[in-house]
Amino acid sequence: MNSAAPLLAISQVSLAFGGVKALTDVNFKVSKGEVFSIIGPNGAGKTSMLNCISGRYRPNHGSITFKGKEMTSLKPNERSDLGIGRTFQNLALFGHMSVLDNIMVGRHHLLKNNFTTGPLYWVSGAQKEELKHRREVEDIIDFLEISHIRKKQAGTLSYGLRKRVELARAVALKPDLILLDEPMAGMNQEEKEDMARFILDLNEEWGMTVVMIEHDMGVVMGISNRVMVLDFGRKIAEGLPDEIMANEHVKKAYLGEEDELLVEEDAVEEIA
């Protein structure tokens, strides 16, 4: 986990929409094999940060480096090709499609078929590739314990199961880094415990590095290696879970107490 070069490095990242500042000079690094959580009150800039990493937003300032490659100017699909997957705060499933087909969508960028080789490839290897991808998707379905809903339409499922399907689709990308935006939002306690177990297994058994936004502090402190705290788009703390829990600036940010070191005149809510 403590490799010499970080897997992900964020340097002086700032993001604004007109005069609205979402992020200001944010710096952090994530090592390969970590579970790294980003926390903060509503409007802190957490989702904006994930959007900058995944390519949905392009920061006004700063750099984002993944596996030693500067990728600030890369498109989202190019970042997926490098090995970055993500889930969304608001579900982004195809409701009319089956669970299996939704997860297969996550394999799209791994297909060898393209415009020039399509007809020839279909004759020579497409069927074998299709079987290979379906086997790997079935492994993910078994891992996430959703075999019983594999043929159901995603839009008919409970919220907790749809969150699990979205995680499966992100895992289907075979990412080295997976970005999870509130993976346990709207879940009951049992569903949260299951999701926490899946995230830990993805990290420990499947070798995926995790950057996660989550509001459940019990989960964050229980499964994270390190935690970063944002408030009004600025980083106010970073460290081990116990250090974050004891940090006075963090307590003030969550309690909403005024702290002249942290609150700026033009602080605004996150846009994301």
TrEMBL record:
SMART domains: AAA (SM00382). Pfam families: ABC_tran (PF00005), BCA_ABC_TP_C (PF12399). Residues 8-257 form the ABC transporter domain. It comes from the Bacteria. Keywords: ATP-binding, Nucleotide-binding, Transport. GO terms for molecular function: ATP binding. InterPro entries: AAA+_ATPase, ABC_AA/LPS_Transport, ABC_transporter-like_ATP-bd, BCA_ABC_TP_C, P-loop_NTPase. This is ABC transporter ATP-binding protein.
